Amino acid sequence: MREPVYEIEFGDHRAEVVSRGAGLRSLTKSGRALTEPWPRGTGHTGAGQDHPPLSAGLVLAPWPNRIRDGKFWFDGVDHHLALTEPERDNAIHGLVRRDDWQLVDHSAHRVVQTIRVGLHKGWPYPLQLTVTHELGPDGLTVTHTAVNIGATPAPFGLGVHAFLRVGDVPLDECTLRLTAGTWLPLDPERMLPQGPSKAVEGTEFDFTSPRSLDGVQLDTPFSSIVPDHDGRARHELRAPDGTGTVLWTDRTFGWVQVFTADPAQGQGYPGRGRALAVEPMTCPPDAFNSGIDEIVLAPGADWSGRWGITAV
Fold first, then answer.
1. Are 148 and 300 in contact (CB under 8 A)?
2. How far apart are CA 110 and CA 108, in angstroms?
3. What is the pLDDT of residue 44?
4. Contact of 309 with 27, CB cutoff 8 Å
5. Rounded to the nearest 5 degrees, what angle is found at the Cα of 212, between the Cα atoms of 207 and 214?
6. Angle CA 217–223–226, to nearest 5
7. For the chain, does the N or the C end have fewer beta carbons within 10 angstroms?
């Protein structure tokens, strides 16, 4: 049985959101693709399953990215998570990206879904997560909330595996601009932090001005994100004619991981080859061990954050 697909629209914007991982399956404006879509029934989990390639569009919580050896120490307790990336001995991308979220509300331009994060191996912290995908005049706005419904403080982080595109323009013909001043070196074998963040200025990771993506390979966390006057930070993917797709974040998302899918690296995006993920995240990889931008939710406390996608 296929999972539910929720269609929403506003003006010339159209989107599809699925229940599995609360994933954004497609987003278009006037028929122009703003994200990498995936067809129904062709995912990686078997016939009839709609799990997207490379986790495209999925919510990553209660931690994004990787936790070294699946281990972390919190509130006086040593935790041992399941190794969901066993080839690198990591716990990756949280606990909800492969689960079905429950529908709360669905209208013409808005869909709200929720999921309870129950008890898992190494995770004794019950949380209630909600995500709202809403279309409006400026495109897509996504609002996340998390509530600690347990009796003890809980660590928390969230990210989204968003893939951007500018219609049918090949990625190597596009430019990328990031409002990020630092980048975090990673161990190429395990994709875990290897030293402190470094300034992007004067390095291959400087995208503060638009740069061609021709042949560029990235799987890199960026931070020191600079918001505009309205409090939103904007990251831009643009085609040669100046049209583009912008991913914006509010101040709760202090990190963005940028990843280039590439067949040459054994990770091409089906039907596209090279593709670009610009992933808003609240914290860097292994934050539960480093403590960098780790969120701690007291019992009954809540958190919320917003990001979105706009065509330009």
1. yes
2. 6
3. 41
4. yes
5. 125
6. 115
7. N
ω into residue 62 within 30 of 0, thus cis? Answer: yes
One-letter amino acid for residue 186 of the chain: L
Give, for 115, the enclosing helix (H) or strand (E).
Answer: strand 110-117
Cα–Cα distance for residue pair 240/255, rounded to 1 Å: 27
Closest to 103 measured CA to CA, from 202, 211, 7: 7
Q: Alpha carbon 130 to chain centroid distance?
A: 15
Region for 76 from its dihedrals, namely left if φ exceeds 0, alpha if ψ lies in -120 to 50, beta otherwise: left
Q: What are the tokens at 8?
A: 């929403």
Q: What's the residue count for the chain?
A: 312
**Terminal Cα distance for the chain, rounded:** 38
pLDDT tens for the chain, residues 1 to 312:
567 899 999 999 999 999 999 999 999 999 999 999 998 764 443 333 457 999 999 999 999 999 999 999 999 999 999 999 999 999 999 999 999 999 999 999 999 999 999 999 999 999 999 999 999 999 999 999 999 999 999 999 999 999 999 999 999 999 999 999 999 999 999 999 999 999 999 999 999 999 999 999 999 999 999 999 999 999 999 999 999 999 999 999 999 999 999 999 999 999 999 999 999 999 999 999 999 999 999 999 999 999 999 999
Distance CA 89, CA 280 (A): 24
One-letter-per-residue 3-state SS of 195-209:
CCCEECCCCCCCCCC
- State CA 301 to chain mean position distance: 23
Q: How far apart are CA 303 and CA 280, in angstroms?
A: 16
